[in-house]
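Re: duplicated header lines in exported structure tokens

Our pipeline writes sequence and tokens for each protein into one text file. With two proteins the header for the second block appears twice in some exports. Here is an export where it did not happen, for reference. First protein block:
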Amino acid sequence: MKKRTWLSALLAVALLVSMLVMPSASAAGNSAFTDITDPDQANAAEMLRLLGVVNGTGGGAFRPQGTLTRGEFCKMTVEIMGRGDEEPAQRSRTIFTDVSSTHWARGYINLAASITVGGSAGGDGESSTAGTRLIMGVGDGSFQPDRVITCGEAVTILMRVLGYGDGDVAGGLNWYDGYMGLASSAGLLDKLNLTGASTISRGQAAILFYNLLFAKTKGSDSLYLTGLGCKVEDGGILLDVNATLAGSNTAVKTTTGTYKTDRAGLDENLEGMQGDVVLDKNDKLLAFQPKENITSRAANVAEWAYNEARLTGGETLELPPQTTVYQDGEKKVYEELWQDLKPGTPVTFYYTAEGKVGYLFLRSASASDTAMVARSVPSGNPFTALTKGEGNYQIYKNGMPATVNDIRQYDVATYDSGAKVMNISDLRLTGMYENVYPNTDTPAKIWVMGKELPVLPCAVEDLRNFKIGDTLTLLLTNDGKVAGVVTTAAAKGNAVGYVESITEDGKATVQLLDSVLGKVEGKTSYRKDSATKMMGELVTVSSNKQGQLTLTRLTGGSSSGVTGKLDVAARTLGGTPLADNVAVYEKVGSSKLQPVKYSQITAVSVPASKILYASKDYAGRYNVLVLNDVTGDLYTYGFMSKGTWKTDSSLGEIVNSTVIVTTSGKDEGTKLELVGGVEVPRNAVGGVVASLNTLKDGPAKIAGYVFLKELDGVRRSAFDMKAKTVTTTDMVLPISDNVVCYNKTTGKWFAEHEEAMDNLNAARAFSDNITIYYDRTPEDGGKVRMVVVQ
């Protein structure tokens, strides 16, 4: 019989980023019994508790190392057979001389001794055969109910529960050898390294009974648990172990449904795994059983692209756009998500039998409530207590592979026991302590710069040293939870973002570069024209007054601390290397700041004057770059024309000049109209970027514009679609991923396909007379932005 490796909990795969492994078969079971540390025993005891077979020893204890008597084993056997209600009727009988009328297990022992298995009734000329009693005495009329039971005795009883009698087993040196051999084949001894003469602990007995539930009864393909009204069904992929369902305090969500459960909880590291659900007779979930031979890989992604992901370390994984992604408990498609995924996003890749990526599971960014702060300058790893003795784990800091030498004072660590990854963060936020919930003695949430932040238990004592109105520095986990608090003299944060809006009364919303922190809000001193000039500006943010923000504008070049040029191919800035997961942002004038991929920078180099901001990580590598109009990818390109927009004012009607760009879209295309006094030549082709500043009840203003250069007479053979380039007599131009294509003959845009390159192929197929439009030379980062055929 194939060895069963079903488990109701599984340690998520511990993986090096550069290798594929098979999931571990070790359990990561959670249990209502608080004194069980072995995951397999915890899992087994919890399922037996749900079935009413065990209830512990009181006070949430199970005593897994304690011994188990023959009387106690009889009780468990009767209960797992579902016959516990027959026990009271057996208390008045005397079967064994040493089981007195006052012995607590008398009814269970008598009932077990009365049950027979096997045997047959006579008929049709056949003689009847006697069955085998479930339990027997020790040969002198006694039972020895308080003697510790041996493995051979326990296994013999449970094999009889499965329907096997003495006539089904071979002989051996010891009376129990035949039963032990049969039990091993049936999977009853899985996870147990015991001989027939061994005594068994309560924890080992729990595993033995657990294995019984998933063993097949004699002469049947049915699992024993199905005879108790339970069932095993395909559970698909486990999405959320903390789901909600009406009428239930706890629930588990999979791709096949949401199930009520009375379990103490499933391990979060099971999320993303494929498996079966085990349901009781009331359709409540008892367990989730991961399937065998599932290959998966946990990784940190340095850069997401439309059809691939570049891992930290440089390896690239192919990801077809239609790859299934499970995120936030929902099924999605990679094509719809990839542009919004951030570098360092924790992800697990699950593979098909053919070695292809089958689906992605994006684990929740929430960190464990157990976190630690390096309170002093580290000597070695100050966070080993988080691992509870586990070895062979990896260290990641800010989403990058790291070592113990990379740990600094005031770093914060959490531990993912499933992936065996220690996540370290140096994320900090400095500001005024504005508010707290529910109170300063037991803070669960605090507010700094208008932002609500959850407080972990390990930070409560720190916060008690501060009062509302103090300026402090929060030490944050990599998902933005407060793990510690220190004075600004000890450590400071450096919140950087861009001004998203400023209201008439000066209230500003600033989008911080660190996506975990999101936005902060507060009053500023900026009003009217000065507020307008701040829109879209890159700023540092601080707060030293209730409800207010102090914004300091950052500018490019040496004044922002950037020296030297960005060598794109070498991935260095002023000779200093970039981090593998460097986050790159770009803006044009007062436009919205937008994330871009490093691969979008096609210029040979970028001068310091084009770098608005750059920050370094703990290792001295640049991990954030903010560019000023470098890639050209923020523009909307198409045919340009002039227009006007009328607005009312106290001085009467005002006529504003506008620029209209007609670009690719279904049917007649789409139009973008922006306000700005730009002289647009006749038949101009170019691009514009919208500012965050808008007319009242009107369109946005122009943050930047460009006219494209024209090159006609290009043949379709000049296009290398694999390399995404066009070769002319003078240069090799990259093709923009968002190139737009127009058919001059039909007057229609090529817009049938979702992908720009598919529309480009349709344009090339229509004609070999092609005109291309580009913005600048390849050395300066120029790309083909528009293609016209006729």
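Second protein block, exported in the same file:
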Amino acid sequence: MAEHLGLHTVGDLLHHYPRRYEERGQLTHLADLPMDEHVTVVAQVADARLHTFASSRAPRGKGQRLEVTITDGSGRLQLVFFGAGVHKPHKELLPGTRAMFAGKVSVFNRRLQLAHPAYELLRGDAEETVETWAGALIPIYPATAKLESWKIGKALQTALPSAQEAADPLPESLREGRGLVTLPEALLKIHRPHTKADIEEARARLKWDEAFVLQVALARRRHTDAQLPAVPRRPRPDGILAGFDDRLPFTLTEGQRKVSEEIFADLATDHPMHRLLQGEVGSGKTMVALRAMLAVVDAGGQAAMLAPTEVLAQQHHRSVTEMMGELAQGGMLGGAENATKVVLLTGSMGAAARRQALLDLATGEAGIVIGTHALIEDKVQFRDLGLVVVDEQHRFGVEQRDALRGKGKQPPHLLVMTATPIPRTVAMTVFGDLETSVLDQLPAGRSPIASHVVPAADKPHFLARAWERVREEVEKGHQAYVVCPRIGDEEDGAKAKRKSPEDEAEKRPPLAVLDTAEQLARGPLAGLRVEVLHGRMQPDDKDAVMRRFAAGEVDVLVATTVIEVGVNVPNATVMVIMDADRFGVSQLHQLRGRVGRGSAPGLCLLVTEMPEASPARQRLNAVASTLDGFELSRIDLEQRREGDVLGQAQSGTRSSLRMLAVIDDEEVIAEAREEATRIVAADPDLERLPALRTALDALLDEEREQYLEKG
């Protein structure tokens, strides 16, 4: 159990909940068996035949094969046993016998079969079997080839009595106030339910545990953070921030103003700000972050902005220096008197430029630094780091944020920006230690984006029309993006990799930038200036291409998702995404945000060959039908299951959530957060709640504790 399921203690086993329940005689219907999966079915033997055959091992026709056909009313399934393995089943699996069978579904001669399945007879006479299967509801556990569901069931049978000793993490008053059953009762009911109501009661209780213990962990972390010292940073009335606001050619949106107030209030306190700034693509997050950085510079500190890629860091640097104008020319001729320096620090910079940048940071000449992971290296010293802004949170590891935070004399304030809209509950769970601000209105002058699905296989003339649309936009003086899933210079080794079933079905690798660019330039877009951009180009080449595109010297940019984040070319009005079904929902939404950034309306065409009824097409239809990122992120999550959300991707551990579904259990999470905050405020060390402490220690084994610590 430890090796295959990660279960080490009786408690682990008791919390290994059934995946589902079968009512006697109502199992995975044989008609709907999934291929290549371990299944458990209850069925009746229809007939059994023993065949002998000759083989290399048994040359004189002494090889034996037992074929058993089973049925459950919905369909039939063949079982096969070979060699010495046939004797026991031959005696036991007589026609009319009912049993549970478990094994991996495979196909032989175009028929589904289970080879050498494990089975358990349901006789109803042997004491033990009756005992084990007495309940009408048979629990089916997440199992592996080495451990069938019923072996886990038997182990649980042995362990269940000790559920009585389970320490209950929920404070009595909370449990009774919400009418939840006790933990021992919930464990009994989840493993040995007599009715469906038992299962519901148990689930309601166990969900609360998960939500509550997790929220207590986060609440304690917020509480600890609030005890940390930080230097309050308040802008000066006549400082660089005021100067910046004066030169803005437009007024801030209501949302930008409100969020800025929240941030300034946090910066003025003497413990570190931890804030998550969510905003749709193009809602002006960079502007809000820049004003926060200027406020810190006003207060004598320095601000660092961490971007996930060099292209982005360079772009941020360009747009920040442009927005600041002479305010960014500290110490230079023509610089304003309260100006500061804005330096760029990336891995591919030349040695001299890099030395100068490091010097400006150490002396405090530079109030603002924008860079990639290069900022985190040991050599980088700040005079007084007051604020860290992290762009696109999900691309940064916890350790990296941690290392940067360690560069301040006292913990700096932290602002995390993300353009991936995160549903409220997920934000409460994943970023539960951050306060959240949301920018939800687009700045004036942003244009709406129309999105359409182009079914290239069903309606090839739609694709032809798409290229005409690109030409029309270019004739009007605009520019276009064409996005492909692959670069196209991969070695053949990449092709040999295991293909996903979708690839197999299509027998076609995803479209590549290099091939597509060539075909377009020769075919439908002949005569236009077509260039490529992808991640394997040299940083200087990438930058040169982006500059030419921004300057309008390129009509069509054929690119990979390098352009997903932060690329800002207001003149680009149309985007064609090839093989759009190969991208995730939030990725498509991000990409689409690159057009319609100017005064002309944007157009996004999602090209796919997937058939109308496929889930992939439904996903694309969803993206085409709404521009609301929060709505899309819900769809995305529902499709992806929330396992990926809880930072396993970041911390590499399996999700601690077994019962809780982040999207469906919104109320539970919100209520648990309130309760947790209240309890931690009253008793930060949980001295009065020893059982809750125990549960917390179990949830936060070392690894998780550190993960939260570094959050």
